[in-house]
Amino acid sequence: MSxxxxxxxxxxxxxxxxxxxxALAASTRxxxxxxxxxYHRLWVAEHHSMPGIASSxxxxxxxxxxxATTHLRLGSGGVMLPNHSPLVVAEQFxxxxxxxxxxxxxxxxxxxxxxxxxxxxxxxxxxxxxGNEFPELLGELLGYFNGTIPDDHPFHRIRATxxxxxxxxxxxxxxSDYSARLAGRLGLPFSFAHHFAAGGTDAAVAxxxxxxQPSDVLAEPYLMLGTSVLCAPTDEEARYLAxxxxxxxxxxxxxxxxxxxxxxxxxxxxxxxxxxxxVDGFARGHVVGSPDTVREGLDAxxxxxxxxxxxVTTMAHGVDDRLRSVRMVAEAMGVTPVAA
Length: 340
Fold this sequence. Notes:
Order of helices and strands: EHEHEHEHHEHEHEHHHEHEH
CATH superfamily of the domain at 27-39 and 227-340: Luciferase-like domain
Distance between the termini: 28 Å
Protein name: LLM class flavin-dependent oxidoreductase
Strand content: 5-15%
Number of strands: 9
Helix content: 40-55%
Family: To bacterial alkanal monooxygenase alpha and beta chains.
GO molecular function, one term: oxidoreductase activity, acting on paired donors, with incorporation or reduction of molecular oxygen
Organism: Iamia majanohamensis
Radius of gyration: 19 Å
CATH architecture of the domain at 27-39 and 227-340: Alpha-Beta Barrel
CATH topology of the domain at 27-39 and 227-340: TIM Barrel
CATH class of the domain at 27-39 and 227-340: Alpha Beta
InterPro entries: Bact_Lucif_Oxidored (IPR050766), CmoO-like (IPR019949), Luciferase-like_dom (IPR011251), Luciferase-like_sf (IPR036661)
């Protein structure tokens, strides 16, 4: 069967016994290996006040990764637009596009990517919106890139430099059908967070395709699914290495996020029935196992959804385990390495 493009989402995991600096160095290694292996793109996520995730400033990390690679597409998965001034985002990503033309993606989300208190600190206000302001913010942002801010808008005289004329590829991200429908109406590519919202995948995919209207960007819908994948030589080893992701989500749901636990720490944890239920819901769409198991799982997902691209996120404690996993997934899915 014809397989979709394969890409990577990196959260710059800070494992027990390591530091944010170590995590960012690991992200650099991952980007360079992804480029060598033939992955299509690599995105970094925006999270705040999470000890186990170091990707709090996507634009800064993207700039570093772009300088450490030559042709790999790089982007945000995503920038949480309500956290930021659209002008600042336009200037940051306009600069990235000007520095690395044709290599930059701007994936945009409407969730805070953190808890409400941290969101208030980011936005300098306790009056947090419900996400319904997202289309207005998006329109302003796109206007800075393409010069379409209306004359009656209070910011119509502002010029984003860089920004105007240096527009990266814009994507909408979502974990429900809200952004799916908006992406469809605007004719933009859409990335769904199957890795943590698998229960809503089919509805969001259908909403995106139903709402799609051709645009200057796309003639047809383009769907990417974020997918949690951990590959190891055997199913048993892969499940063991995936244990920390289960414990990490329990701690996050309990309001006690921590650095990313070790497999030994996760194996020793006695999950309560409530914790196990939370884990089962979170891991519903995860693909964990040997190369054959992973290939079968990803092929089944593509057959069900018709995804044009899969964005693999690999949550493992050790960087060597993450690198081994992305190598094995690339081989299992027939990705062609780039010639040296």
